Amino acid sequence: MKVATFNVNSINARIDLIRRWLEEKNPVDVLCMQEIKCEEHKFPFGVFEELGYRCAVYGQKGYNGVAICSKLGFEEVQKGFGDPFWDEQKRFIKARIKGVDICNVYAPHGDLDGPKHSYKLTFFDYLRQYIQERYDLARDLMLLVGDLNVAREDKDVWAPELLRGSVDFMDDEREAFEKLISIGLHDLFRECHPNEHGFTWWDYMTAAIWRDEGMRIDYILASDPMKERCKEIVVDLWTRRRRSPKPSDHAPVVATFDV
After folding, report:
1. What are phi and psi for residue 63, nearest 5 degrees?
2. Exposure of 5 in the CB half-sphere (CA atoms within 13 A)
3. Is the pLDDT assigned to residue 46 strictly greater than 90?
4. What's the pLDDT tens digit per position in 26-37?
5. What is the pLDDT of residue 206?
6. What is the arithmetic mean of pLDDT over 109-128?
């Protein structure tokens, strides 16, 4: 089973790019998308159906929004956490596919301080508690994937001294993220590629992709059994190194599992 996470930065703006990627380059089995920026009735279901996917969508007009598209069907789908406060922003969708629970998350970007920053830190606390209460990560087949908007280590940003203290690379953000991982999740890319930076995001405005001035903020995190079943994980740069169709500012992370 090949699973991808991809912040598409508007599904309708990126649909031609995604279609080409899935048809020509990487026909993944499960595509988890974040920041789709549309309500469910405006999601391009037809395009994915033509490619053999069923899609579960939890959307929001103009902001946020998550979706999971699967060639393997769904055994179960949950849209949102089931908490009115945390579901006001559409940031979480979960599906069971071939016995694997896949939690697709779009974490808040936050700010340097103020309510957006506090919301981001509290979001990670809530997400950690949510996972802990529902999973035995030593036994369950579970993945937590998505744009988590935190770079863990110095090697995860192109210029750590320059960027230290900036959004997505602040000490308290990183601490909150490490608390989430510490409950028994594995950062598959870093464990499989300890010496590669693995950037997944590059600023549009400075042509940063061509100088490799990026950050690693998109993840596939796994329970113990799913870590053992992981055969390969890569950052697929094909979608990002496009001039046309216009790319997202993120690249997908793709992992292959023996399931």
Report:
1. -145, 160
2. 28
3. yes
4. 999 999 999 999
5. 85
6. 97
* CA dihedral of residues 173, 240, 232, 96 (deg, nearest 10): 70
As a residue count, the chain comes to 259
What residue spans define the domains of the chain? 2-257
What the block records as the tokens of 216 is: 């690693």
Just list the catalytic residues: 106, 147
- Whether the CA torsion 209, 215, 217, 223 is positive or negative: it is positive
Mean pLDDT on 143-153: 98
In angstroms, the CA 41 to CA 104 distance is 20
- The SS3 assignment for 195 reads coil
Which residues in 11-27 are b (16+ Cβ under 10 Å) and which e?
Answer: beebbebbbebbeeebe
- The CATH number of the domain covering residues in 2-257: 3.60.10.10
Give which of 11, 1, 72 is closest to 47, Cα–Cα. Answer: 11
Query: Would the pLDDT of 205 be above 90?
Result: no
